[in-house]
Amino acid sequence: MELGYRHQSAKVQTEVHLFRNELRDLIARVRLGNDSIAGYPVYIKENVQEGYVHGVEGDFNVAVTSRWNVQGALSWQYGQNVSRNEPQRRIPPMFGRGAVSYAHNGLSITAETLFASKQDRLAAGDKSDNRIPAGGTPGWAVFNLYGAYSWNAFTVRAGFWNIGNEDYRYHGSGTNAMGRSASLAIEVGF
User: Fold this and answer.
1) C-alpha to C-alpha distance for 184 and 156, rounded to whole angstroms
2) Domain boundaries 2-21+53-188, corresponding CATH code
3) What is the pLDDT of residue 28?
4) CA 105 to chain centre
5) Hey, where are the domains in the chain?
6) Which of 49, 88, 111, 127 is buried deepest, with most CB atoms within 10 A?
7) Under 8 Å CB-to-CB from 188, ≥6 apart: which residues?
């Protein structure tokens, strides 16, 4: 089920959605006896559980002037495994994006932040998953600065990513994201 609202005018675009997903015959990991491989327990997948996920997500885009733009997005979810009376596995924490952009005469520059709160509301399967740190996934915020300049058939793009060199990962991914970095690209259109 989903309920949403969208507004669009010459300068403002925004939308917000509330949702609830009822989950039946949910596929779950089931431990296969006492088997293990290299010390890790062996699991199989079965359709054996029920649960739900509900939440809210929204975003906005405001043209402050003809050259300046402000954007933002936010998402929050809550999941419960009813069969096990515990949190649903791998529910992401609240996360979002905020950005300020400038564009004029072929030049565009964007400063953005991406962020997530900590996720320590974990199912038993999350706690035993080596892709999720002990105690849950810490919250984080990263800052990026990128832009482009176009003239004729050429576009030069450059960016500075994770400027603060934050050590972070998306919840349940098992892989830490890239540290401080820079990029440069030249595009030629025909």
Assistant:
1) 7
2) 2.40.160.10
3) 81
4) 32
5) 2-21+53-188
6) 88
7) 153, 154
